[in-house]
Each structure stands twice: as structure tokens, then as C-alpha cells.
Design a protein that fits this description.
The chain has 151 residues and is α+β, with helices and mostly antiparallel strands. The chain has a single domain, classed as Electron Transport, Fmn-binding Protein, Chain A (Pnp Oxidase, Chain A, Roll). 23% of the residues lie in helices and 42% in strands. It has 3 helices and 8 strands; from the N terminus they run H-E-E-E-H-E-E-H-E-E-E. 28% of the residues are buried.
Length: 151
């Protein structure tokens, strides 16, 4: 049954894009090559095409993302969630164009380029996006498939 407050898929895409443009932190799920799961919150920037995060190269998340080149991200809380599955591009901390690093630092309040710890950038390109609030939005929760918006 669809509740009167249920959002259309078009509205959910707008809400998802707003969240990507305005939220600062995202849950990043990764797994090692042998399947050991790991979940961590990281600050991020969205450029309209990809999510950019930075983490220590030797952290479990850094190692996992570099090894498997895949992740699942979660924005929001359990009653207003956006799930993003994506492929990961690993970039050296000095290889990202300066303006992208500056944008990340301004948005997140954190600049990994000056850290004594060796960081890497991880550019995550979505290939699947889902968004829903309650059970009544589960049916049409898929908003992107194979990297293409469905609405």
C-alpha cells in the first residue's frame, strides 16, 4: 500500500542528489579479499559524478578499497537511507587536481594532503543507487542501474 507521503522516484532522485551535495559524511563498507567486512564513516565530496573520500593507505578501509576496487556507501539513517554501490579508483594523494583537493578540504574541514600519515584518495563512481524511507517506498527504490539514472 502506498502512503500519501510516499515520494515518487523523481522526488527520491532529487532528495538523493541534495543529500550528496549537502551531507558531509558517509558510511563506507568494504571487505578484504578473503571477505572480512569493515565499516567506517568518512567525510566525502560529490562532484556530480563521483564520491571522493580519503583515508589512510594502510587502514583496513584503504587496503580493502585498493584491493577489491568496490564498495557500498550509505547516507542518512534507517528511515531515510540512500545506498550506493560503486567502483573505486585509487589515486595518490598528490595526483588529484589541486582544485578537487581544495574543494574536498573546504567542504569537509579536513585536508589529508598535509597529514604525516600516508593517505590516498578514493574516487567512487556509482553504478547502483537505491533510496527509500519506509516499506511503501521499497518497491521502486532503485534509482540508478549500471551507472545510469532510471528517472
Amino acid at each position: 500500500m502506498v502512503d500519501a507521503a510516499s515520494r515518487s522516484r523523481v522526488r527520491r532522485r532529487r532528495d538523493t542528489e541534495h543529500r550528496l551535495a549537502h551531507d558531509v559524511d558517509v558510511w563506507v563498507a568494504s571487505a578484504s579479499r578473503d571477505g572480512a567486512p569493515y565499516l567506517v564513516p568518512l567525510s566525502f565530496d560529490w562532484d556530480g559524478e563521483a564520491v571522493l573520500v580519503a583515508t589512510a593507505a594502510d587502514s583496513p578501509t584503504g587496503r580493502n578499497l585498493a584491493a577489491t576496487r568496490t564498495t557500498r556507501l550509505a547516507l542518512g539513517h534507517t528511515r531515510d537511507v540512500v545506498m550506493i554501490e560503486g567502483t573505486v579508483e585509487v589515486l595518490g594523494i598528490d595526483t588529484l587536481p589541486r582544485h578537487r583537493g581544495d574543494r574536498f578540504a573546504v567542504r569537509t574541514g579536513f585536508d589529508p594532503r598535509g597529514s604525516a600519515t600516508r593517505y590516498r584518495w578514493f574516487r567512487i563512481t556509482p553504478h547502483r543507487v537505491q533510496a527509500w524511507r519506509e516499506e511503501d517506498e521499497l518497491r521502486d527504490r532503485e534509482l540508478m542501474r549500471d551507472g545510469c539514472w532510471l528517472v
